[in-house]
């Protein structure tokens, strides 16, 4: 049931060879009807507007000490093997997460946070470990295959604004100083928010606004 298109050989950092094959398959539209917004972060790699999360930190942190020992001992083969293990862990988790979202939703909206600026800060290690670019890439090509709407939207003020009333209260987290605030209460409507879920809901709302004016066709 597959039509072969092209193939290539590749070698990974451990010296293992792979044969990669491109195949052509018929697209199967998703059965999902709902839309979700996704807030990308460091404490949690991704938080969905329905409350589900992809927990961060498990890709690299528990192997950090083992990697450090191998690096200090200058065991290059061991270091390459550990890096490959971390990479495979990350890819596996992101693939499972992105596939589940595409299979169960008709529209997916992601905030336009960029890792380029954050990699120059103290958070660089966590930013690189999160794999934001990889997740967005997976969501995009899987959405195309399942006829799902996928858009990257402006997430400005998504963390600060209340997803219920839209106001920016004094209690909302602001700037780097507000990174430690994980929950807050809106002064205007009294709603208690999970920081990341609230941001994801605002991203979803921004995505719906984008749909109203239409999606540009290239």
Summarize the structure in words.
The longest helix has 29 residues, at 76-104. The protein is built from 6 helices and 9 strands. With 218 residues, the protein is an alpha/beta fold. The mean pLDDT is 82. A 5-stranded mixed sheet has the order 5-4-3-6-7. Strands 1-2 form a two-stranded antiparallel ribbon. It has a two-stranded antiparallel sheet with strand order 8-9. The chain has helices spanning 64-72, 76-104, 115-118, 124-130, 132-145, 195-213; strands spanning 3-11, 17-24, 35-40, 44-48, 53-55, 107-111, 149-153, 183-185, 192-194.
Task: Give the strand content.
Answer: 15-25%
Helix content: 25-40%
User: Multimeric state of these chains?
Assistant: single chain
| Main sheet overview | 5 strands, mixed
Low-confidence residue ranges: none
Distance between the termini: 31 Å
Average of pLDDT: 82
Number of helices: 6
What would you call the structural class? alpha/beta
In spatial order, strands of the major sheet run 5-4-3-6-7
Order of helices and strands: EEEEEHHEHHHEEEH
Global Rg: 20 Å
Shape: flat
Number of strands: 9
């Amino acid at each position: 049931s597959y039509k072969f298109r092209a193939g290539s050989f590749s070698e990974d950092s451990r010296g293992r060879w792979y044969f990669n094959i491109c195949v052509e398959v018929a697209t199967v539209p998703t059965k999902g009807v709902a839309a979700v917004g996704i807030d990308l972060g460091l404490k949690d790699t991704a938080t969905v507007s329905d409350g589900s999360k992809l927990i961060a930190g498990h890709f690299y942190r528990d192997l950090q000490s083992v990697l450090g020992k191998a690096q200090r001992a200058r065991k290059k083969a061991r270091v390459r093997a550990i890096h490959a293990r971390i990479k495979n862990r990350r890819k596996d988790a992101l693939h499972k997460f992105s596939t589940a979202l595409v299979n169960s939703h008709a529209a997916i909206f992601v905030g336009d946070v960029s890792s380029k600026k954050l990699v120059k800060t103290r958070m660089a290690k966590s930013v690189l470990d999160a794999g934001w670019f990889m997740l967005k890439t997976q969501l995009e090509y899987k959405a195309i295959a399942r006829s799902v709407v996928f858009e990257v939207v402006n997430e400005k003020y998504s963390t600060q604004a209340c997803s219920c009333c839209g106001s920016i209260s004094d209690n909302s987290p602001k700037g780097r100083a507000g990174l430690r605030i994980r929950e807050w209460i809106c002064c205007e409507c009294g709603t208690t928010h999970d920081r990341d879920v609230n941001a994801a809901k605002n991203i979803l709302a921004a995505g719906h606004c984008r749909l109203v004016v239409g999606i540009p066709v290239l």
